[in-house]
Design a protein that fits this description.
By secondary structure, this protein is mainly alpha-helical. 30% of the residues lie in helices and 6% in strands. The chain has 2 helices and 2 strands, in the order H-E-H-E. The chain has helices spanning 13-20, 36-48; strands spanning 26-27, 64-65. The chain has a two-stranded antiparallel ribbon with strand order 1-2. The longest helix has 13 residues, at 36-48. The two termini are 19 Å apart.
């Protein structure tokens, strides 16, 4: 998951890293650097509220990016 656009958080790295993980997924949610930790905390909370069978949390739908061809 990434969304920060600065020199340290190169946008092309994160999808490539996620693609290397078996069953990895990548989500891009644009946020300011000052909100990066809050974004990860929110994602953790959203995922904790659903079961594996329920799938992707409603609040993250629309932010997943394709990482496999």
């Amino acid at each position: 998951m990434n969304g920060v656009q600065d020199k340290i958080h190169e946008q092309e790295h994160y999808p490539k890293l996620a693609a290397l993980i078996p069953k990895g997924r990548f989500f891009h949610i644009p946020v300011d650097e000052s909100q990066r930790e809050q974004l990860l905390g929110l994602a953790s909370v959203l995922f904790s509220q659903v079961t594996k069978d329920e799938g992707l949390p409603e609040g993250l739908r629309g932010f997943e990016r394709s990482i496999r061809s």
